[in-house]
């Protein structure tokens, strides 16, 4: 198959266009169907790595500390997300426990780890090993991270339990809220930008240019 550089194919109507350089905040749309073709990343590359690190910190807090503390008739109970998975398994709901484990712990953690693994070398203009495979894996994992759905379920449960018992939000609940907001920003990063960051032509060395001119 012949490769044609500097071209872009519209995902909406398969029209082929020449790739035009974009200025900051520019967005290219298909003239035929209006589908977005490209978007200037702006400062997104510089922001995404610190956000990823912050997400990993919030993820650790959300999984190591209690989500809520419930007090009923003098008895107190608190649990972490991992404890909730264990409790579901003990109650015979192994399928539900597996879904909670996969969608709220395993898949989001893998996404963040892949992002950090890709972004650290790319920030130094080096391509990490397994680049193509990991970018595709991250795209495949995206629909399966459901921390926001879990957070919504926890908030609904807290509202219902508040009429029967004293419910005190734990550190993990606040961490989950912060994590949901930051993950929204992190996962809005277009994976296609990884290819541009990796295969874009490097800027010529100013010193080399001056030396060539003086020669």
Automatic annotation (TrEMBL):
<dbReference type="Pfam" id="PF04403">
    <property type="entry name" value="PqiA"/>
</dbReference>
<protein>
    <submittedName>
        <fullName>Paraquat-inducible protein A</fullName>
    </submittedName>
</protein>
<keyword id="KW-0472">Membrane</keyword>
<keyword id="KW-0812">Transmembrane</keyword>
<feature type="transmembrane region" description="Helical">
    <location>
        <begin position="141"/>
        <end position="161"/>
    </location>
</feature>
<dbReference type="InterPro" id="IPR007498">
    <property type="entry name" value="PqiA-like"/>
</dbReference>
<feature type="transmembrane region" description="Helical">
    <location>
        <begin position="173"/>
        <end position="195"/>
    </location>
</feature>
<feature type="transmembrane region" description="Helical">
    <location>
        <begin position="95"/>
        <end position="120"/>
    </location>
</feature>
<feature type="transmembrane region" description="Helical">
    <location>
        <begin position="48"/>
        <end position="68"/>
    </location>
</feature>
<keyword id="KW-1133">Transmembrane helix</keyword>
């Amino acid at each position: 198959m012949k490769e044609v550089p500097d071209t872009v194919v519209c995902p909406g109507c398969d029209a082929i266009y020449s790739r035009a350089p974009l200025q900051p905040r520019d967005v290219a749309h298909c003239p035929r169907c209006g589908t977005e073709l490209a978007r200037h990343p702006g400062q997104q590359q510089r922001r995404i790595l610190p956000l990823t690190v912050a997400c990993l910190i919030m993820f650790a807090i959300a999984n190591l500390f209690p989500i809520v503390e419930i007090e009923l008739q003098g008895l107190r109970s608190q649990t972490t997300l991992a404890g909730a998975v264990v409790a579901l398994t003990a109650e015979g709901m192994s399928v539900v426990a597996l879904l909670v484990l996969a969608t709220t712990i395993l898949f989001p953690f893998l996404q963040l780890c892949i992002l950090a693994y890709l972004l650290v070398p790319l920030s130094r203009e080096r391509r990490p090993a397994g680049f193509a495979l990991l970018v595709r894996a991250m795209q495949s994992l995206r629909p399966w991270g459901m921390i926001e759905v879990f957070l919504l379920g926890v908030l609904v449960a807290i509202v219902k339990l508040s009429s029967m018992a004293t419910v005190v939000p734990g550190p993990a609940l606040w961490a989950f809220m912060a994590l949901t907001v930051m993950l929204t920003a992190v996962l809005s990063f277009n994976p296609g930008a990884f290819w541009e960051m990796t295969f874009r032509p490097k800027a010529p060395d100013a010193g080399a240019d001056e030396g060539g001119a003086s020669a």
